[in-house]
UniProtKB/TrEMBL annotation:
<feature type="region of interest" description="Disordered">
    <location>
        <begin position="329"/>
        <end position="362"/>
    </location>
</feature>
<dbReference type="GO" id="GO:0120125">
    <property type="term" value="C:PNGase complex"/>
</dbReference>
<dbReference type="InterPro" id="IPR038765">
    <property type="entry name" value="Papain-like_cys_pep_sf"/>
</dbReference>
<dbReference type="GO" id="GO:0006515">
    <property type="term" value="P:protein quality control for misfolded or incompletely synthesized proteins"/>
</dbReference>
<comment type="similarity">
    <text>Belongs to the transglutaminase-like superfamily. PNGase family.</text>
</comment>
<dbReference type="GO" id="GO:0005829">
    <property type="term" value="C:cytosol"/>
</dbReference>
<feature type="compositionally biased region" description="Basic and acidic residues">
    <location>
        <begin position="335"/>
        <end position="362"/>
    </location>
</feature>
<dbReference type="GO" id="GO:0005634">
    <property type="term" value="C:nucleus"/>
</dbReference>
<feature type="domain" description="Transglutaminase-like">
    <location>
        <begin position="179"/>
        <end position="234"/>
    </location>
</feature>
<dbReference type="InterPro" id="IPR002931">
    <property type="entry name" value="Transglutaminase-like"/>
</dbReference>
<protein>
    <recommendedName>
        <fullName>Peptide:N-glycanase 1</fullName>
    </recommendedName>
</protein>
<keyword id="KW-0479">Metal-binding</keyword>
<dbReference type="GO" id="GO:0000224">
    <property type="term" value="F:peptide-N4-(N-acetyl-beta-glucosaminyl)asparagine amidase activity"/>
</dbReference>
<dbReference type="Pfam" id="PF01841">
    <property type="entry name" value="Transglut_core"/>
</dbReference>
<dbReference type="GO" id="GO:0046872">
    <property type="term" value="F:metal ion binding"/>
</dbReference>
<keyword id="KW-0862">Zinc</keyword>
<dbReference type="GO" id="GO:0097466">
    <property type="term" value="P:ubiquitin-dependent glycoprotein ERAD pathway"/>
</dbReference>
Length: 362
């Protein structure tokens, strides 16, 4: 038994070494290819992929994770997990889910309903005005205050309170630690903060980016042996067709960015049986595939742990094969078990905002 195990480890290391060499050769070839390098510099979608490839590294800050854990411990998340475990023992609920799945479900619900706040227009801090009709947009400004700069705000939205004439600043914070304090924003801030919470619990997760201006998350469920869709804005769990089918959102590109690899997830999220697939014309498909091969080669060629590289490559190939052979129609067959209340128009955001974005289910 020991010799068989040793042989398996030896074969895995051999595969990892050979694949590392192959990835390095590919990287060298693409780095020397002037046409491809020009594509990386000039094509906006390629530049977006490059910019997001290492985005998950931002959540590995030990101090931020400690802050997140303290907040979770003080919440009712773990009592909810215990309740779900008791119910499962009684034969209730999904018997295929495990402890981590319950933890993610409870974290989602608590985050959506008790922790984070959606902002259409910010309330007035001076007079307390929260009437959205009495707050009007007044332009944009660069980060200026200490909070805005430390929070790595991409920009600041300016509003005016009609009641007291006060100027209201709404910084679009990018620092996950700052978001633990502000606890407000739109989908970008929600996803950013939620990913930090997942990472603080040592849950394998990744960010998912949609070119039609939305972001969400996925985590890897050991119980289900696959990546599971999560949307903290909607308290949505394992409902990948929520956007295309529930929101009636038209989509073209959906990409996943994890610590192990980046991947095109469009096949998973866009339904082929609906007329809601936008043209994929921002880059030709062959070049897009090469961009993903390039960013993954950069990561895998520098991986020194043979066992770790082997596991990453196996999981990547399994996911690619699953995406290739599973059509969106077949995927929806599994999703038909979702109740009508789960396939619903967008809940986060004002009615006017979701209508303007084509996410109101019509």
């Amino acid at each position: 038994m020991s010799s068989f195990s040793d042989l398996a480890v030896s074969l895995q290391k051999g595969y990892a070494c050979a694949e590392r060499d192959h990835q390095q050769e590919l990287l060298n070839t693409l780095t020397a290819n002037s046409g491809f390098q020009n594509l990386l510099r000039t094509n906006q979608l390629a530049k977006t992929i490059l910019g997001l490839t290492d985005s998950m590294n931002a959540y590995n800050n030990p101090e931020w994770q400690e802050q997140a854990i303290e907040i979770i411990i003080a919440s009712d998340v773990y009592s909810g997990v215990e309740r779900r475990e008791r119910e499962q023992k009684e034969g209730k609920g999904d018997q295929n889910l495990g402890y981590t799945d319950f933890l993610v479900l409870e974290l989602l619900h608590w985050f959506r309903h008790k922790f984070f706040k959606w902002v259409n227009k910010p309330d007035c801090d001076r007079c307390g005005n929260a009437d959205q009709d009495q707050i009007e947009p007044a332009g944009n400004a660069p980060p200026a205050t200490r909070e805005e700069i430390q929070g790595r705000a991409a920009g600041v939205e300016i509003y005016k309170c009609k009641k007291c004439q006060e100027q209201i600043r709404f910084p679009r914070l990018n620092n996950p630690s700052s978001l633990l304090k502000s606890r407000r924003g739109r989908c970008g801030e929600w996803n950013n903060c939620f990913l930090l919470l997942l990472k603080s619990l040592d849950i394998k997760c990744r960010s998912v980016w949609n070119s039609e201006d939305h972001v969400w998350s996925e985590f890897y469920s050991e119980s289900l042996q696959r990546w599971v869709h999560l949307d903290s804005c909607e308290d949505a769990f394992d409902n990948p067709h929520l956007y295309n089918r529930g929101w009636a959102k038209k989509m073209s590109y959906v990409f996943g960015f994890g610590e192990d690899y980046a991947i095109d997830l469009s096949e998973k999220y866009i339904c082929k049986d609906l007329d809601r697939a936008l043209p994929r014309n921002k880059i030709d498909e062959s070049s897009l595939s090469t961009v993903f091969r390039y960013v993954n080669a950069k990561r895998w060629a520098s991986e020194t742990d043979d066992t770790g590289l082997y596991k990453k490559l196996v999981q990547y190939n399994l996911e690619i094969n699953a995406l290739t052979r599973t059509s969106s129609a077949n995927s929806f067959a599994k999703n038909q078990e979702k109740s009508q209340t789960e396939m619903k128009p967008r809940e986060s955001g004002s009615a006017e905002w979701t209508k303007n974005r084509g996410e109101d289910g019509r």
